[in-house]
Write a structure and sequence with these properties.
Largest sheet: 7 strands, mixed
Structural class: alpha/beta
Oligomer: single chain
Distance between the termini: 45 Å
Bound molecules: zinc ion
Strand order of the largest sheet: 1-2-3-4-5-6-7
Strand content: 15-25%
Shape: globular
Length: about 325
């Protein structure tokens, strides 16, 4: 009896929390050119239980005579394939790596690319999160907790960091606690491409990672800030899902606000989390939300409930 329960509990957490069910050997890295010298690398679909649309987090690459700048570093198990994909674009030195946020599908390959010579940039909060992970009991088995992959240059909520290379200006734009406490948008000014990490997603409902410092308020602010960083022609590249344009953010933001308003109304009526979940507040959006599984819906509504219930508001 006890054994059966344990097995069930393990199965329940395995895909989302540990990624153990994913066959990394089958993943291919697909390269798409976004501008004269800007590329995105995505994992193949149907393999990652957490992101059926594409395995792991998306990577950005700026290549040219001044060397390579990368955005995010994927799961640790995919770094050889990512490096091979980068090498198909350009053989030059990998000089800089910037992380959009701390999640391991975006940072677990950091130590590998640091070894290739990359100087890692990220928000102060992201580095603090990694340091905390390195002090946890399971640190030895967690690639995100490997100090060799910690950011070397960190920044706060001030003006964007600018990198001038390959006839491009790259802006690391800090975003207030949204998907996590240490989010960054990365803009390629001349190519007019904006990598926006995970606080916007069009595969499943939004993920406000409260355990890593994310907030509902920051998510809405981040969406506003993203719209300000883009014009009507900017290509916006989420960490997962399809490429979008600035105005695609409007209905997404409206959805977050509408769900938050409904949840807030139910909280005001004294409803419990269970009652709020049973009220199906996302129903008007479910058909339009690709990958909007029960799990992703429940996670999002629970996060909104917790944020509003705690008084942090929106
Ligand atoms: Zn993420």
């Amino acid at each position: 009896m006890r054994r059966a329960w344990l097995l069930l509990a393990t199965l329940a957490i395995a895909p989302a929390a540990l990624g153990q069910t994913m066959d990394f050997a089958k993943v291919e890295i697909i390269t798409e050119q976004l501008g004269p010298n800007v590329y995105m690398l995505s994992g193949s679909s149907g393999l990652d239980p957490s992101h059926e649309d594409a395995a792991g987090g998306r990577i950005g690459v700026l290549a040219g005579p001044d060397g390579i700048l990368m955005i995010d570093s994927q799961y640790a198990q995919l770094t050889d394939k990512v490096l091979a994909a980068v090498r198909r674009i350009d053989g030059g030195p990998i000089r800089y790596l910037v992380n959009t946020h701390i999640h391991r599908d975006h940072t677990a390959g950091n130590a590998f690319f640091a070894k290739q010579g990359a100087v890692i940039f990220a928000r102060e909060e992201l580095r603090d999160g990694m340091v905390k992970l390195s002090q946890a009991p399971n640190a030895a088995s967690n690639p995100v907790a490997n100090p060799a992959g910690f950011p070397v240059i960190t920044y706060g909520m001030g003006a964007p960091v600018k990198i001038h290379m390959n006839n491009e200006i790259v802006h690391f734009i800090p975003i207030r606690a949204a998907h996590t406490g240490g989010d960054t948008n990365i803009k390629f000014e001349k190519a007019n491409v904006l990598f926006i990490g995970d606080f916007y997603r069009n595969y499943g409902y939004p993920f406000i990672d409260l355990n890593n410092g994310g907030t509902l308020k920051g998510m809405l602010e981040g969406l506003d800030a993203t719209m300000k960083s883009a014009d009507a022609n900017t290509k916006l590249i989420p960490g997962h899902g399809t490429i979008i344009k600035r105005d695609d953010i409007i209905p997404y933001r409206d959805m977050v606000v509408a769900v938050a308003d409904k949840v807030g109304g139910l909280i005001a009526q004294g409803k419990s989390l269970e009652e709020v979940l049973a009220a199906k507040v996302t129903a008007p959006y479910d058909a339009k939300t690709a990958g909007g599984t029960d799990e992703s819906t429940k996670r999002f509504v629970t996060e909104v409930y917790q944020e509003l219930k705690s008084g942090r508001g929106r």
